[in-house]
Amino acid sequence: AKDRIALHIINSAEEKGILKPGATIVETTSGNTGFSLAMISIIKGYKCILAISDKSSPDKIDMLKSMGAKVYVCPASVAADDPRSYYEVAKRIHEETPNSIYINQYFNELNIDAHYCSTGKEIWEQTDGLVSHVVVCSGTGGTISGIGKYLKEKNPLIKILAVDAYGSVLKKYHETKEFDEKEIYSYKIEGLGKNLIPTSTDFEIIDQFVKVTDKESALMAREISRTEGLFVGYTSGAAFQAVKQYAEMGKFDENSNVVVLFPDHGSRYMSKIYSDEWMQEQGFLDSENMDDSLKIEIIR
Fold first, then answer.
1. Which of the residues 74, 88, 144, 178 has the least number of beta carbons within 10 Å of its own beta carbon?
2. Residue-wise DSSP of the chain
3. What pairs with residue 162 in β-bridges?
């Protein structure tokens, strides 16, 4: 999903003459967009500087560095307008770096456009127009907004269902149009939720939000990996946990054709949700959900 917006925004900047040879690409990221930007920067010969939240997994940070990106790790617990936040750090780096562009995915309409032009169209065509519901995690909101815009133009009855995290303001804002700072607190899930209101989210297109917990999302990702053979990431676990919750709320019936987007890979979370030690430290694994049959047996 993030490959699409990264390439779309970079191609657009090149076409407009904003992005010049040898330029530096700067961005704020939880990691997933950062991978795409780092990869495309290598291919196209650009430098890449990323401001990333300190709640992002060490695996993500190491992988970004291995792809040649310069990484600034910023505290996740500060307000969006704090000078130490990854939003403000990225802005400052852009201002101080000659021949650089700031992708600014949270406030870039091309984020929506990328998925309107590609992902939404593909979902419609690959389901033969029979899709009834789409479930997508909302962070920047570009993915869900672009998909939703395309699909609702095809069929206004299609339901666009969003996923938010506890500790994020998005669900409350969708329901009340009020930014409530009391909704903001620390959470573990990466790649969804926000402590600000991105303009790359079209809240009018989204029919409903549901919030998922850190624990249930982590356990769901592990379950999908173990039972379906899909090595999905933390955000993907959150997405499918939301599908489960929407189903329990009676949103689907036997005629529903539900599409859920898995935006990340499990390899980016080996030190977190796929580490029994980390899961136990968070209180996510106990005697009830620990599978002892998977313990490593050491032969001496």
1. 178
2. -HHHHHHHHHHHHHHTT-S-TT-EEEEEESSHHHHHHHHHHHHHT-EEEEEEETTS-HHHHHHHHHTT-EEEEE-TTS-TTSTTSHHHHHHHHHHHSTTEEE--GGG-HHHHHHHHHTHHHHHHHHTTT---EEEEE-SSSHHHHHHHHHHHHH-TT-EEEEEEETT-SHHHHHHHS---GGG-------SS--SS--TT--TTT--EEEEE-HHHHHHHHHHHHHHH---B-HHHHHHHHHHHHHHHTT---TT--EEE----BGGGGTTTTT-HHHHHHTT---TTT--GGGSPPPP-
3. 136, 209
Q: Please state, in angstroms and rounded to a whole number, the distance separating the CA atoms of residues 253 and 192.
A: 27
Q: For strands 258-260 and 208-212, give the pairing.
A: unpaired
Phi and psi angles of residue 87, each rounded to the nearest 5 degrees, phi first: -65, -50
pLDDT in tens, 153-180: 999 999 999 999 999 999 999 999 999 9
pTM: 0.91
Q: Could you confirm whether 16 is annotated as catalytic?
A: no
Is residue 42 classed as helix, strand or coil in its secondary structure? helix
Using an 8 Å Cβ cutoff, are 164 and 192 in contact? yes
Q: Note the pLDDT tens digit of each residue in 7-58.
A: 999 999 999 999 999 999 999 988 789 999 999 999 999 999 999 999 888 9
Of 2, 60, 172, 194, the catalytic one is: 2
Residue 293 CA to residue 16 CA, distance in Å, equals 57
Calpha distance 269→234 (Å, rounded): 7
